[in-house]
Amino acid sequence: MKILVCISNVPDTTTKITFTDNNTQFNTNGVQFILNPYDEIALARAIELTEGNGSVTVINVGEANTEPTIRKALAIGATDAVRINALPHDAWFVAKQIAEYAKQGGFDLILTGRESIDYNGAKVAGMVGELLDIPSVSVIKKLDVSGDSATVEREIEGGKEILTIPFPFIAGTAEGVAEPKIPNMRGIMSARTKPLQVIEPVAVTNNVEVTAYETPAPRGQVKLVKADETASLVDLLHTEAKVI
Amino acid sequence: MPVLVYTENAGGKFKKSIFEVVSYARAIADAQNTSLTAISIGDVSADELATLGKYGADKVLNVSNAKLKSFINQAYASVVAEAAKSEDADIVVLSNSFSGRGLAPRIGVKLDAGVADGAVSLPELSGGKFSIKKTAFSGKAFATVELTSAKKVIALTPNSYKVVDKGTSAKVEDFTVDVKESDFKAMVKEIVQSTDKVSLPDAEIVVSGGRGLKGPENWGMVEELANLLGGATACSKPVSDAGWRPHSEHVGQTGIAVSPNLYIAIGISGAIQHLAGISRSKVIVVINKDPEAPFFKVADYGIVGDAFEVVPKLIEAVKAYKATA
């Protein structure tokens, strides 16, 4: 079984988000970048599914500074890696690069995280699916393989759906699919020598441009209510906040 | 060129978030001086379809086809894209729901359209530019994106736009599309709906618990408060990691981002990752025995106290309020 796992290099979850250049650029100064948490889940499941029988290629669209994240994926257990040498402009740009690479790869399964924690678009899986004309399914909580198809559990509002999908297809994974794996010393050592191929990007016409950023407006001072005056809180929520 | 809005249904009924999407799409159509066509796929009654007119749809396209009974990304995207072409629509609007997030990128590729996901505002139109504000960095910020393509797809975040009852009506027409067989490779085998619970992404009130509740056996009061208020239950990441609550209730940067009118946090300290997922709540209430908990810095109302004493009293107070309301 041959699996392609798409990984993003994102700011650490503890990052305080700020902007520069008149709020037009994300301020990367002092920011620690990590492997996108949802992609870690996808990677962990891919490794479990291919143990002793197959390969896991990780693909990242990024410039040379994303290589520590790619090496971490290799240390966790990916077989090899591909870096498309470009700044990831947006989901459309990233999806085009991944689809272009995947066309030649003969992958049974392509996994992404359900979304990246920076732009939260959750678009790459669907776009790659459409570009390759294969099924896509997002926010999956469970992924089991049997023969040449898989059974997945998909989250829906107020419940879940169970689907069967023949290979090849692409899926966006969430918590529940697998527990993220921590690289061990052997993995870290072997990651240094695993193949990491660098490919130049294909040309893409952009159709979305970020023109400005802003942070949420600060909230006012908290209004404290005494612990034995819960009726006052209910009254405030009704008369002042008008939310009940 | 009309605006097209995709109106997903749950068991043949439209949810409030769909009326928000139709109202939002109506406002866009008005700004573009054009009409609004809604498309519905699945088994929805004529009366239910007609309700879309109240919120501004001029016309409703009804796609009722046994093969399209279950939601399949590929097939649904084909239908919506065909409808957009047939209507000559250059803007497609849908909900940023689980299904909407699966559909929007596929429709975007089919129509060669830029996609604005997680939209929280109406488009700004100035100097020929079409810009929309969306959430970014898991709720820690907003990004304004300009869609530069001729066709555009917008996925609206639930609870981001008010429902506007226009009191108008729509004509309902059947719409037929030949969907290719290869669009049905994925097959839905089973749907497990927890009908007794309010869906977290759509909820207007969310009652959420953290490690301060000490164990899953203490969630009864969280559920009771949520039920009384007609809200959904949620939890922090450590709680879902510990298996006290299902992952589907985990709210935060690596869980669900919510934007309810009221978010009640019980026994949650307010780590930056949790605050990211709830920052778009209109009103935040925090109950925590630690007066230094960071959550109090972003809360609108707070009670410093032991959850096991405060929450039962709050339940009684809500019951008393409801008895007199």
TrEMBL record, chain A:
The keyword Electron transport belongs to this UniProt entry's keyword annotation: yes
SUPFAM superfamilies: Adenine nucleotide alpha hydrolases-like
Domain of life: Bacteria
Keyword Transcription regulation appears in the UniProt entry: no
Pfam family, one: ETF
Span of domain Electron transfer flavoprotein alpha/beta-subunit N-terminal: 23-208
Gene3D superfamilies (alphabetical): HUPs (3.40.50.620)
Keywords, sorted A to Z: Electron transport, Transport
PANTHER family: ELECTRON TRANSFER FLAVOPROTEIN BETA-SUBUNIT (PTHR21294), ELECTRON TRANSFER FLAVOPROTEIN SUBUNIT BETA (PTHR21294:SF8)
Family statement drawn from the similarity comment of this UniProt entry: Belongs to the ETF beta-subunit/FixA family.
Protein name: Electron transfer flavoprotein subunit beta
UniProtKB/TrEMBL annotation, chain B:
Keyword annotations of the record: Electron transport, Transport
Domain of life: Bacteria
SMART domains on file: ETF (SM00893)
Domain Electron transfer flavoprotein alpha/beta-subunit N-terminal, chain residue ranges per copy: 3-188
Transmembrane segments: none
Transport recorded as keyword: yes
InterPro entries, sorted: DHS-like_NAD/FAD-binding_dom, ETF_a/b_N, ETF_a/FixB, ETF_asu_C, Rossmann-like_a/b/a_fold
Family, similarity comment: Belongs to the ETF alpha-subunit/FixB family.
Name used for this protein in its record: Electron transfer flavoprotein subunit alpha/FixB family protein
